[in-house]
């Protein structure tokens, strides 16, 4: 772990070599021996500095979800201090849902901007700091325009829109970079054999380490996502401006902690113009009908190298072409993810409004959204400590495509449950069904996230070349923005009396998309494990 304040370039010195020759020339890496293929795989220890990044992400998510929680009521309901449901703008459910989806769309679409800024200009660390500063500005605007005087004076709506635009840039800048920045703190890329104190020989697999890292990263995300437990109660019992002030204080603390930890992090420098270079590589691959044909070794052999000025540059190698190919592969895997997120988004708007049609008995209608992160806070440790180790012990490979497919099925079941519940809400007397009957819909979505979003984060990191990790991570988050844009188009049916059909349709869409994902990408994850010949072992263990 570097403590140098300067940003070291962590790119491999062999990155300019073709991928095959790079592996052949690496003195400490060999294909895994045939007699060791069946060894149990285990994750490595996570570097302690990763905890600092996780704490920063926890604070950022506390801020994002803390300010998002009250928004549906803030926009939908009119300002009436004596009403059961708090409100400010009185725009109705369709407008509230559309604006909420616009905020999500912009926040996740701007991840692309955050990725470009990080990869080409600032680096991930500085890009995250700048995003924190933007966040603070946006929240300051929101707090000052959410006071009773501003609401009654007519400036609240303009302040909300302005703050959404600013906050979206801050969110995008952090989301694009914090996950790859976290994973970069773990630098091992090859598996190795280790002898445990019990005498068992196991393979320490970096992919499993990254999986564990992202699981606990997402666990922290959902711990932070519990912030609406605080902000929606403050909104209901005090005021909106005070509810929004709490996230503002937290993001200021996050920025101070992150800046103060600067010397503890491993940092990569910006890579110049990787996006432009990747685009040129793709154009050559299109012209040559495939990435394999676009490799300079083959172009040289066929006398076609001089046709492409970019291909004659020293940085254009077989390995650089292979890196771009893997990045494109990662992006292809995300094509169906928007159909998952269309369902996922419902818990942040339409299900909140559905709760408002039920018997609340003193429960804020936007409180139950917290069941989603609570489910994940319980489910993620269960997966990490019980389910996944048990599967690995029995040599059962719960492959990424199986995880994603399982997540699609679970979110589909959530929408089916919401559909049936909405049907009975329409048939029953007003506000007669207890609000906590909604709980399974939120819990199913939470369980689905553990399979879809965590796996998506892993793929965005492990499948992307180092120089494009922020961009590929941003494209993963962009799928939420695309889903939000689709949900904006669905705004006319996101209200009575169409909600039964809307939830039912989403349930079908989620299931079909999950099946298609498995059919299209079911064999996209087969990769040989590379093994370090020099083993790293715990104290008391015997080197082989």
Provide keyphrases for this structure.
544 residues, Growth Hormone, Chain: A, five-stranded mixed β-sheet, disordered N terminus
List the helices and strands and how they pair.
Elements: H1 19-25, E1 29-31, E2 40-42, H2 49-68, H3 71-76, H4 93-109, H5 111-122, H6 124-145, H7 148-153, H8 156-183, E3 191-195, E4 201-204, H9 206-224, H10 228-237, H11 240-260, H12 274-287, H13 291-294, H14 296-301, H15 318-333, H16 337-345, H17 350-356, H18 371-393, H19 400-427, H20 439-462, H21 469-489, H22 499-521, E5 530-532
Parallel strand pairs: 2-4, 3-5
Antiparallel strand pairs: 1-5, 3-4
| CATH topology annotation | Growth Hormone, Chain: A
The CATH architecture = Up-down Bundle
Helix content: 55-70%
The order of strands across the largest sheet is 1-5-3-4-2
Oligomer: single chain
Main sheet record: 5 strands, mixed
Strand content: under 5%
- Write down the Rg: 25 Å
Q: What letter string, H or E per element, gives the SSE order?
A: HEEHHHHHHHEEHHHHHHHHHHHHHHE
What is the CATH superfamily label?
MFS general substrate transporter like domains
Number of domains: 1
Give the count of helical stretches: 22
Q: Structural class of the secondary elements?
A: mainly alpha
Low-confidence spans: 1-31, 532-544
Mean residue pLDDT: 83
Q: Give the strand tally.
A: 5
CATH level-1 class: Mainly Alpha
Q: State the separation between the terminal residues, measured CA to CA.
A: 26 Å
